[in-house]
Protein: Phosphatidylinositol 4-kinase beta
Amino acid sequence: WVVGLSDGMRGCSPPLDIISEDAVVLDLVINPEVALKACQEVLQKVKLLKEEEEKRDPPRQITQTCPQSQQQNGDQSSAAAKQSLLLRLFESKLFDVSMAMSYLYKSKEPGVQAYIGNRLFSFSDEDVDFHLPQLLNMYVHMDEDMGDAIRPYVVHRCRQSIAFSLQTAWLLGAYSSDMHISTQRHSRGTKLRKLILSDELKPHAASKGVGPSLAPDSQINPTDAYLSPSKRTHQRSKSDATHCTSLGTSLKRTASNPKVESGYDEPLRLTPQREFIKSLISIGKQLATLPTKEQKTWQLISELSQLNHKLPARVWLPTAAFDHHVVRMPHTQAVVLNSKDKAPYIIYVEVLECERFETSGIPLRIPETRIRSARSADNLLPECIGITAEQRAVSFSTVPNYDNDDEAWSVDDIGELEVELPEGHTSSSDNISQFSVDSITSTESKEPVFMAAGDIRRRLSENLAHTPTTFRKDPEDPSAVALKEPWKEKVRRIREGSPYGHLPNWRLLSVIVKCGDDLRQELLAFQVLSQLQSIWEQERVPLWIKPYKILVMSSDSGMIEPVLNAVSLHQVRKQSQLSLLDYFLQEHGSYTNEAFLTARRNFVESCAGYSLICYLLQVKDRHNGNILLDSEGHIIHIDFGFILSSSPRNLGFETSAFKLTSEFVDVMGGLDGDMFNYYKVLMLQGLIAARKHMEKVVQIVEIMQQGTVS
Structure:
């Protein structure tokens, strides 16, 4: 073939030339004889390589079993290649927690499952915590190999953190509740839950001498409980396990601490928080038995008032993003939310931020009767009132503690803690008001500021238009007034009346307590919303949604993070007696006002986001009570109890993919408006982005199908 090719090139083909851009013929660059010689050399090399391969791997004798052996060898080589590729993927930087969950769920090989189980230790705690429901659901409902792969990581984290231990125990109980009672009693999930709640998963002996020891005679620096922590992240590393000291194992019976039993088996590490949560849940169950909203409200205030006598204690709100201790609940601010059959309620909780709630000292209780004297004297510097910081600390520590010492969740910290503020500290409640400070600052300015009269009138009109309206009290819906109040105003008002408000690390939190509702689907919806929010941010699609935290405590109770500065569309319509567009104009000003244009844009971007959420999750039961409107114009959908083809009483009467009413379109400017076209563009962009990353969303739902009752 090569000889014929060379003959043809010699006889028929003209010599190969290269023509430049200016059509100048160059010299011959390829010689046919040289090309023929090069081809012959290549063929000779190929022949030599083939002979060497045959010498290394001689051909097998052809027998009757040859096809079967060849197939086995081929399967082995393909399996080895597949394992090599998997290992390269698992060790690559692209391998994240979402991929780990997917391979852990789909793989049937114990070796791969064990490898991914060990790989969980390399991810951050926050990333794994997001997929904790999937992890524990696989542990409860899948085979023994899966359980053996997951258990070491879960046990390690339980030894490391009290908060993780309780969250794991609550989820294990919730996901095991659908089993038959005989199966549930002896299941892996139930056994691990009992092990956690028995408080046997305490930190290892590394805490003896490595972590901060709380010996009976040692004193806790009260500054840790009162000063705001320095710059830090909320991510807990594995090394924190060496610093997680259990109070139940470190406190011993002494003359000053007679209640602490000797030995190391008393489960005081988890008891305070468990009893605190049980108290809140039991209040919700009591409220559900009362007939009227007014009776429920009075009962709620009464129960929270009794609960206040047990605070401060080593308890916290699990929905918060920072470490803290609960010190007080302003019981008169709590309200019962609108619900037909149940009695969910919202409470406001005063907390003091701390470095680590498991080991930081708990502040001493300040009785309500001491509010005025404490705030008037303690806010002054020691030099101003003629006493030293030491004398003030001694006098502060003599305040009697009226807590009930027999309560199980108030015995965590028995020793008295002295309260001492730094000498140079001044709080926001000092005698010099912020107004006077601003006045002094303004008078020191030497340059006059000139403003046009028209600019002054415009700013005054905008300020009047921006003033939020207030709702009137409604006995049938007492929560409307509380939810309408701006959050900053609520914080300022509660802080002024609090005995702890003068402390610099004082914070106000809120939480909704629900009883009689299964929040497991709400938790699943929160995960899907959070994943879609991350996808849209990654793809730079300006859709707006607000995932709120869900804490599942059992199959019929839990806690929900409230959406601040937001009221339901039902409350807006009932209180204002206006259409949605007129309400926007009332709240944000005229059509040309910058505040109104911003609110309209926020409305469009959030409406498009939740339209896609309702379409992808098939969210049902969409009425005005389940759609909120915040102070910036966003709409927020809540109550995802009916998703993925389930509907109220399984009637299936809601056929629309999502809720888009004529009132919504009017706020956007009509069907022919630019903002409605913007809404349609956002819908398309968001759907394309979600489809691009659909595996991350699908695997969240797919794993949770294990153990569900069809």
Remarks:
- The radius of gyration is 34 Å.
- Strands lie at 324-328, 335-336, 345-353, 506-515, 550-554, 557-560, 566-568, 627-630, 635-637.
